[in-house]
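Bumping with the actual sequence this time:
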Amino acid sequence: MSFKGQLAKDIHDVFLNLDEFAEKVVIDGREMAANVEDIQNTDRDGRYVRPDRDGVYVRHKTVAVAAVDYGGELPIQGQLISLNGQRYKVAEASNDLGLFVIVLEDNEEV
């Protein structure tokens, strides 16, 4: 098997293995396996940070899904995406050898 072929196989068998790393999610109405990391940006004092608005913080979720499961083009910055029924804006996205890594953001008030 070629290196690229092995990487394609590893996306589901290793990185998106539901028994090890991944979970089932629904993105824009389609169920798929994904790795989801939830990050809240805070400053050194532990306060939530949104530089342009006091009392508002940004929650980022990094979602890794197989490009073939996502079914379509890589999302673009600013595009709205539904993840498990919650709307997020795409902050950035990349295609890493068949694995879409999508950083989503959502503003929350405190």
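The tokens above came from a reply further down the thread. The chain has one domain: 3-109.
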